[in-house]
Write a sequence for this structure.
């Protein structure tokens, strides 16, 4: 009962590793044979004409359905079976699955946290134990993380290279409907969990949020696969996608114990259109997961009850003064620039590493060297006895965050108070510098370190490091404010001092929001700190940071998507007003490769040679151009290959020999025989063509090479074989994705056998036979055809097209007009149009926002339009597209 | 440049008032004439054949575009114009619009709050001033609200009946793509604002949340309309829909000063699929609005700084014990049942009022009597000196809520403490009863009062009353717990007492979540109380409440949608596993009314008589059944009417007379002339049919009635006119939605004039002429055709169909197979299939969840299937659909 909704496959190769993905089309596609369909349809129509009111097909459907249910019900008849069914029905419930997922993820998260804490503890212990010798101390400080990072890089390299990095970009792509290979397997799960634990245990500025989204998704996929023993519902693809969306929420939720923020963050970073019916799933699973995650801490007596992870204790009665809002807004805007800079820096580092061929080649050979070198560099700089003392180097990420959210004003700590906090605040209150210097050095150093560290090939996220940097920046602003206004700004009766901790919270939310282009980091900080009293400053800062960052750079995840060359559709940004005025007809490709229903095999061959499209349009005829459906390139190749198959040639040979022999006996019956054969299977020879004299059946071709490709090059059968194999390697039929290479080999072998057995024609004869065959009309029975590809009209706006493409996860859509095919739009054209290389008006569509630039462009538009109009009257042969492109290049 | 995306129109009449809405199809539709199109297409193909590589159409497109831009650019040439353009570009920015919207809504919200507070103050003042005489007190207590409610009902009745009720159901429908008439006009805005102020000022248990969503949407629509003077972007429908979504968030956000909760709540209650790109819009506008709303309170010195509306002061260090969680879960489950009961009660009251014909007729005549009676009843019961003393009757909703969230434990107030709180807690601590009795009476009485009060025809919501009841229930449970465990549950060193106020918060979130089927009420309470420390109890309770309520009843808004018979698509609920197995072919209508491109006018007439469908499929021919597009019923009617138009008849008459006269002179040229005329306009006579002798041109029909309908009954021209007018009244062409009746009259008059002028044929002759005309092939030029209606395949699952319908806001979709039309699915079939009247397997698809019931059904399914199979072999003529329906009725 597979409706075969997975589709074409492409191989997009990034430089570091080759990604293979298959495009899954959400939109209706099924794989009924055309031949079967035609027969059914004919039968149906006949019945309908006989009976008048068309209840016959319904009856037929019903009986089919009943047969189907009987088939499934037959084995389970007894009482025990009924119990089993009850159990299966229960297991099939969404909530059972979600509880299981939440439970598993909470345990994973807790266990990992425990392991990471142990690793960090060990490092501290080593560092503390060796305090007699600075050199030993330094070696312990540097070597321990280097070993861990190298191990992490090694294990991911060996087990599953897909486990590298954050995982959110991949999940975004997967939820868009693209199937990334090996991304949701058990091996990747193991590699990611262990790799992440080691990477975070090293104390490097890396995060666990992104990887947790990936881990939760893998967990959901594995759970779904293992539960599919119980019921068919787990095999449903649509359901699995919905569960993956919930899993993303669980990932964030159990990482931060932030269920609401988790759901919202996962929606923002992974979806373009979000189904509200998935909403409760996310909340349910994330809440359960966060609950278990926090309950575990209570059970092992770590904490007395469930509270926030980074609990703050700001005063509730007067959280902030209205006159502090400009400072919060400043934090937002500065964090917006900072976030954009971080994304830019991160991308530049990746690109720099790739561009340096010599370094790159060396590093590619010794894959573990780059992570080790980076680790040595970063740990050396943070060595607490060295430079580290000016940047609170000895603190772990968690300790840093707890201190940054601290309720006290560091710059105003009295010597009397100091001894109380000496132990923990020592790191910031270095005797050789002051709080401000430490904070500035911390921010600057951690900024580039985090950008660098997130590029090393281990499982790691960037959210947490960015969050810490943001908090430090906020604290810096807060401390400055506290010095500036020692008694608070408010000049009424009461004195409310400024809370630098609150500034740190605002900064953390703003910078992480700017880097990820999300607003929900605001909710995450509320849940992390357990206080929502600063909601307005946080929201204002986050929104401003987003506005600035979105107008300058893509989000970190989109940046990684582009770096990894994953298939994507850019978002319509803050200001996308032009998109309403660009129409599909301005961006569509008019020269669509098509196959017509009445075409000859030669046309198939020509189309396969002339285009590289993975999907071809099927039209009624070249004159009417009425779109009937679409057919995959592989299917066309297979049709051609089947028709020119050596076995068929052999059969034709035998058939002709027999026909020759029988010819004298019953010459008059030949035409009847032919009529039957054309209605039969596709392997039956359609010998109604020219009648040629029979060749001696014993003649052998000298030697057939075993390699199909070489055979294709040497003799005439290659035309068919080549197209067959090309199709096989470039795009698999949807059913056989796993063991693709094996299958191709198998085919090759069987062909060789056939060749050995019966090929008794000379190459010239084969060529002649094939030329004959190519003149026959195509028999489309046996081909899988998508009977309702997505259609748009010419005047659909770019905005609407983007909506439909992202809603339905389309890869391409045909542009039709009254059933006639007039063009085609694929992701590529859409991407180009959105990213600004071409538009209808000859004006470059700008990257999101930059509204100041836009106003000047729209003012200049008029002139260029007038100019172009004049110019265009001279050069009527230029296409609008090309003209636009030239225009875009010139400006 | 209107792409004409608004479409068919239907008139769904609820009992209380007639709703007229137009279906807006999001999916591609444009209104190019078929004739123009065919000509263009032919020209294009010819050019393409001449030039080989098809760059001609592109050139044509470009020149079109350039003409278009010149047209727009022509008037603005100078420098001042450039400045104007810059200004317009700025005004066209999303953020300008959102800030304006947020500002206006904050001011509206604040002003309304002020007015409501004044009204309530006035009532208190009156009540307090008259405390010497109980009768006068009672009269003041009752009459004042009654006058206000009557005024509110009156103003809405007179100005805009659309302002009645919550507005969220209507907004949900509008955001689905249905255009409800008069719902977003200035009149409705005024009626809603004043009506709501009066209704809430009366002190009745009504809420302002739902109406605020509606008010914000109207505000956005009006703002958009008034800003459309500045730039064309405001005329874009897709953008306006996005802005409406943001407006809903603003509505909730500025009502509760809860930006995050507002965004989430508005997403949950209005959307099925949510575009993440709208997310920042909602956040931006809601945050700004909430900010201004709260800043206003600071500026007028009401408050010292911005804090939460209902600030709580629960302890942060130990918010709750793990062992209290069962109590929170109990609140959740109980609130789930309570929420379902509330929705049920509300619906029953509405239905009861409608069913009582005698009461109903009386009330319909005196529309203001029902609100007045309800108000008198409710205020009498809450009279503080009477029954009201047992239910805290003298408190306003806001005071009640503040007290319910109070930090102290009421049941443990010592006599010594009491005097401090005597003033405010007096209401609950009645000397004649105790806290528990008061709470129980409060909950029970307010429950039915709120359900009743929300049915009266004034602008009102149910969120706030439900929220208060939930808080009271939570407080009741909390107080009970406090009595049960006087020293807290925790038996470690510290004593942490139970906080009944926290239970109240949990209860409020749970009950309002259950009634509205939302999870985001959790976020709203965090923002309202300014504390997030109880996140886990709140989330657990809300999720459990949702699970219970969703399995029992639709949400309040969906319930109202059904009561009002608005076009809707039910949600796929918690457990919708069956939906994956039902396919489109099981639910589609196979007998689709269609028009074929080569049909005769008689076929058009037949199809108009035989079906009531608003949209007809256009196929290539009845044999091929290839779907070319869809055509509206009105268009078909217009085609037929035009063809049989009296003026055309007259022209034919004149033409024939002339032809007759010329016949002798140039008989040989006649065939050429005919050829020309068929290519001309549709009004030109196509006289290639039978040639009849010319009638005497002076003969007059005795008397033509002026009423077109009567004329249709009496003479033969009625066939055409009737179909024309039927079409005109049942479905308007998309352009003329406003002045529809006027236009119809105009047409009628002009026809009458024509009849008077030139109809000189006898009825019999007219009939004969029309019969002739009906035999001619249809000329589709001039008809508006949707060239790409949405298509599905037979094997699309119900789940996917639901997704696509709700994603694209479809009204119907054609089921095609290789271009051939095989069926059609409309909202009706889909709704039926989802709501459980028919499925593929003969098992009723259950209403969402009720998982315990389902397991028994699936166990019984096998038996019934076997039975049905046997039974079905006997009764082969029964359709599966009917069989299922019978099955459903029997079980």
């Amino acid at each position: 009962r597979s409706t075969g909704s997975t589709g074409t496959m492409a191989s997009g190769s990034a430089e570091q590793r080759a990604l293979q993905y298959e495009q899954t089309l959400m939109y209706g596609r099924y794989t009924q044979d055309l031949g079967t369909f035609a027969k059914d349809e004919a039968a149906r129509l006949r019945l309908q004409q006989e009976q008048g009111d068309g209840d016959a097909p319904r009856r037929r459907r019903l009986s089919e359905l009943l047969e189907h249910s009987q088939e499934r019900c037959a084995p389970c008849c007894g009482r025990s079976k009924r119990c089993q069914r009850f159990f299966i029905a229960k297991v099939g419930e969404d909530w059972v699955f979600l509880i299981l997922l939440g439970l598993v993820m909470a345990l994973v998260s807790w266990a990992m946290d425990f392991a990471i804490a142990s690793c960090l503890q060990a490092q501290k212990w080593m560092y503390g134990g060796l305090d007699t010798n600075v050199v030993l101390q330094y070696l312990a400080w540097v070597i321990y993380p280097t070993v861990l990072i190298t191990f992490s890089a090694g294990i991911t390299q060996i087990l599953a290279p897909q486990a590298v990095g954050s995982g959110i970009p991949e999940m975004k792509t997967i939820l868009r409907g693209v199937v990334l290979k090996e991304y949701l397997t058990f091996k990747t799960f193991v590699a990611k969990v262990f790799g992440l634990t080691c990477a975070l245990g090293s104390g490097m500025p890396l995060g666990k949020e992104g990887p947790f989204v990936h881990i939760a998704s893998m967990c959901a996929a594995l759970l779904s696969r293992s539960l599919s023993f119980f019921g068919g519902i787990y095999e449903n693809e649509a359901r699995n996608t919905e569960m993956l969306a919930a899993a993303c929420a669980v990932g964030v939720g159990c990482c931060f114990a932030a269920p609401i923020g988790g759901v919202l963050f996962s929606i923002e970073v992974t979806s373009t259109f979000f189904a509200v019916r998935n909403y409760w799933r996310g909340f349910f699973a994330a809440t359960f997961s966060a609950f278990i995650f926090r309950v575990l801490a209570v059970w092992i007596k770590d904490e007395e009850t469930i509270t926030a992870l980074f609990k703050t204790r700001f005063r509730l009665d007067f959280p902030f003064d209205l006159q502090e809002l400009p400072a919060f807004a400043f934090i937002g805007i500065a964090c917006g620039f900072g976030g954009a800079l971080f994304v830019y820096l991160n991308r530049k580092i990746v690109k720099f590493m790739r561009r340096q061929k010599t370094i790159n080649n060396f590093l590619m050979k010794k894959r573990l060297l780059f992570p080790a070198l980076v680790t040595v560099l970063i740990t050396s700089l943070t060595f607490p006895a060295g430079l580290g003392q000016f940047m609170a180097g000895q603190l772990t990420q968690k300790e840093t965050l707890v201190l940054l959210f601290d309720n006290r004003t560091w710059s105003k700590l009295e010597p009397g108070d100091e001894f109380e906090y000496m132990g923990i605040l020592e790191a910031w209150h270095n005797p050789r510098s002051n709080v401000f210097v430490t904070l500035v050095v911390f921010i600057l150093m951690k900024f580039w370190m985090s950008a660098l560290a997130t590029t090393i090939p281990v499982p790691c996220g960037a959210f947490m490091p960015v969050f810490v940097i943001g908090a430090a920046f906020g604290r810096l602003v807060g401390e400055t404010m506290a010095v500036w206004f020692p008694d608070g700004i408010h000049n009424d009766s009461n004195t409310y001092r400024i809370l630098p901790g609150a500034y740190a919270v605002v900064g953390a939310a703003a910078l992480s929001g700017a880097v990820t282009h999300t607003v929900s980091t605001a909710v995450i900080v509320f849940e992390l700190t357990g206080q929502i009293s600063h909601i307005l400053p946080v929201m204002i800062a986050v929104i401003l940071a987003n506005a600035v960052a979105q107008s300058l750079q893509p989000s970190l995840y989109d940046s990684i998507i582009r770096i990894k060359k994953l298939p994507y559709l850019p978002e319509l940004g803050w200001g996308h007003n032009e998109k309403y005025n660009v129409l599909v007809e301005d961006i569509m490709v008019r020269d669509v490769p098509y196959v017509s229903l009445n075409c000859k095999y030669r046309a198939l061959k020509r189309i396969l040679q002339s285009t590289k499209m993975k999907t071809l349009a099927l039209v009624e005829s070249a004159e009417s151009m009425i779109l009937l459906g679409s057919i995959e390139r592989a299917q066309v190749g297979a049709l051609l290959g089947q028709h020119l198959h050596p076995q068929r040639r052999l059969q034709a040979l035998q058939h002709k020999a027999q026909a020759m022999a029988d010819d004298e006996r019953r010459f008059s019956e030949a035409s009847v025989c032919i009529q039957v054969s054309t209605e039969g299977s596709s392997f039956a020879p359609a010998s109604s063509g020219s009648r040629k004299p029979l060749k001696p059946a014993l003649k052998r071709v000298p030697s057939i090479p075993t390699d199909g490709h070489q055979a294709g090059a040497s003799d005439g059968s290659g035309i068919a074989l080549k197209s067959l194999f090309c199709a096989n390697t470039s795009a698999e039929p949807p059913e056989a994705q796993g063991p693709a290479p094996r299958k191709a080999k198998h085919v090759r072998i069987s062909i060789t056998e056939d060749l050995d057995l019966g090929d008794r024609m000379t190459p010239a004869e084969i060529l002649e036979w094939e030329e004959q065959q190519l003149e026959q009309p195509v028999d489309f029975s046996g081909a899988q055809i998508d009977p309702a590809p997505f259609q748009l009209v010419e005047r659909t706006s770019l905005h609407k097209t983007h909506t439909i493409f992202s809603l339905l996860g389309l890869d391409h859509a045909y542009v039709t007009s009254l059933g006639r095919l007039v063009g085609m739009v694929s992701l590529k054209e859409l991407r180009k149009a959105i990213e600004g290389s071409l538009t209808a008006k000859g004006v470059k569509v700008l990257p999101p926002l930059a509204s100041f630039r836009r106003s000047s462009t729209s003012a200049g538009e008029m002139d260029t339009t007038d100019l172009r109009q004049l110019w265009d009257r001279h050069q009527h042969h230029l296409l609008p597209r090309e003209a636009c492109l030239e225009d875009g290049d010139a400006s």
Remarks:
- Chain B touches chain A through 150 residues (CB under 8 Å).
- The longest strand of chain B covers residues 6-13.
- The CA atoms of residues 429 and 435 of chain B lie 6 Å apart.
- The radius of gyration of chain B is 33 Å.
